[in-house]
Design goal:
heterodimer, A: Pectate Lyase C-like, eight-stranded parallel β-sheet, globular, B: 13-stranded antiparallel β-sheet, two-stranded antiparallel ribbon, 3 helices
Chain lengths: ~230, ~270
């Protein structure tokens, strides 16, 4: 009996053991379902010439300091039945987030679930998020200084700030923002084009515009500018 | 004649006691813990009534451990600063954001090379990846600001010296920080020789991150003092208040925010 229990526990741990996130070799990383789940412990930076390809069904568990910074070509190719999942290993703790800075090539992200991150962002990049779910993040997705970002059939739920658009614009198609604390936040210089009827049921506010909020308070300096002054001084 | 000789030798001795060679211990120093506090107040510098002035107040408190990693033949050494704990608050962020800032700052261990006169170079962060927006704080910057640089020769009480060092920004902008120092006093405390040094600094702000450009027409100026443990070759305590006006332009919204006054108070204290 004891032997059987031991055998099963070993088999169970082998089955569920996470594979360390691979080192970038020859400018390419391919994450496969066969080797999934993966574990990312710290930060990984893909340079402008490094490609990330993720197959359907891959799960990547994130430790609290995990940050995925993608400057090169990105193809995350989940399917409806086998989505790709990024989530924290310990669901009571958040991880840093995934950041697209791939200005050399547009990213393509399909059927991805991103959970428990502090902030996911797109900066100075273009690309498509299709059927991507942002769940229980602090900043679900923050798009800044980017004009070529498309959201198709995406959903944002249980985030603190679901979608923030900084300088630049987003085109959204059939994208739902519901059940978050704050829905869409359009910062100074930001534009969102999409069906606003799909932004509803958010606890504090569905849509906020920074310029209107600042004007209402007689203020002129936006939060992001304050933050940058602090970090630059 | 005897009296004159006695007086002369006494004066010589007194004079010698008031002269010292200020050098950092870069060869065999044990790990040292420091408390670093950085408070910042930024406000729009205009003639609006006090209660309507737009402003930001932040406070950062760090406990760090400085370790000597490698001593070199030229009397310089490589040090590492490891962050033990962080407390951060700001009236422009939420509590959740405080925790996030604390989390990433606690992983900002960094290394640098330091000559025995205190000149720091080659700061490198270990395994830290900054956010592409350029809106994350950097601990190394605070240490570079408050770090004294000694003259590399013996100095008398009352003597002043000037040093400068270049700082490379996140987008390779070069900023030269001019620092001047005056040795104000030398005294013994519990068998340890301490030097009280007045410190002044000035520099022109040049920051060019992806979203904002921040410059200063006039010099940003700073003043403060430090207590240097001459016996051990370490800083015991240092206080610096930096004050200046900066112009900020937001590149994407093409908004100009002129004349922001920035006051930053830095305090460093050794636990030893």
């Amino acid at each position: 009996m004891k032997k059987s229990l031991f055998f099963f526990s070993v088999l169970f741990s082998l089955t569920w053991a996470e594979v360390p996130f691979p080192v970038i070799e020859s400018g390419k990383v391919v994450l496969t379902e066969k080797n999934s789940p993966y574990l990312l412990e710290t930060s990984v930076v893909f340079s402008g010439t490094d490609t990330l390809i993720i197959e359907p069904g891959v799960q990547v568990f994130m430790m609290p300091y995990a940050k995925l910074l993608l400057r090169g070509p990105v193809q995350i190719l989940g399917t409806e039945k086998k989505p790709v999942v990024f989530k924290s290993l310990d669901t009571t703790e958040s991880w840093s987030g995934v950041h697209f800075v791939s200005n050399t090539a547009p990213f393509y992200v399909k059927n991805l679930v991103v959970e428990n991150a502090f902030r996911n962002s797109v900066t100075q990049s273009g690309g498509v998020f299709e059927s991507v779910s942002f769940i229980n993040n602090y900043y679900g997705l923050w798009v800044n200084s980017s004009n070529q970002v498309s959201l198709k059939k995406c959903s944002f739920t249980r985030n603190r700030f679901a979608l923030s658009v900084g300088a630049g614009s987003i085109k959204a198609e059939s994208t739902q923002i519901f059940g978050n604390v704050f829905g869409l936040y359009i910062e100074k210089g930001g534009e969102y084009s999409g069906n606003l009827q799909l932004i509803k049921g958010n606890l504090e506010a569905d849509i906020r515009k920074e310029t209107e909020e600042l004007a209402g308070k007689g203020k002129t300096v936006s939060r992001s500018v304050w933050h940058r002054i602090e970090s630059s001084f | 004649m005897k009296k004159t000789l006695l007086l002369a030798s006494f004066l010589l001795l007194a004079c010698d006691q008031q002269t010292t060679n200020l050098v950092f211990n870069t060869q065999n120093i044990a790990d040292q813990k420091f408390l670093m506090q950085a408070d910042m107040n930024v406000f729009l510098d205009d003639s609006m009534p006090q209660d309507t002035i737009e402003s930001m107040e932040t406070s950062l408190r760090l406990i760090v451990t400085s370790s000597l990693l490698m001593a070199y033949d030229d009397s310089s050494a490589r040090f590492e600063i490891k962050v033990d704990s962080v407390e951060y608050t700001s009236d422009k962020r939420s509590v959740e954001e405080f925790r996030y800032v604390e989390q990433y700052l606690s992983s900002q261990n960094f290394q640098f090379k330091m000559a025995k006169d205190g000149l720091m170079s080659e700061p490198v962060m270990d395994n830290y990846v900054a956010h592409p927006e350029g809106d994350e704080l950097e601990i190394a910057k605070l240490f570079l600001k408050i770090q004294p640089v000694f003259p590399g020769k013996p100095v008398r009480v009352g003597e002043s010296w000037e040093r400068q060092h270049a700082v490379t920004g996140e987008n390779n902008e070069q900023m030269v920080i001019y620092k001047s120092f005056t040795l104000e006093d030398l005294f013994n405390r519990s068998g340890v020789l301490l030097a009280k040094i007045r410190m002044n600094m000035r520099y022109k702000q040049v920051s060019n991150n992806p979203q904002i450009k921040m410059t200063s027409e006039d010099f940003i100026v700073g003043s403060g003092f430090l207590l240097f443990n001459v016996t051990m070759g370490v800083v015991e305590e240092s206080v610096l208040e930096v004050n200046g006006k900066v112009n900020v332009s937001d590149k994407y919204s093409e908004e100009e925010i002129p004349k922001l006054r920035v006051i930053q108070k830095l305090k460093l204290r050794s636990f030893v």
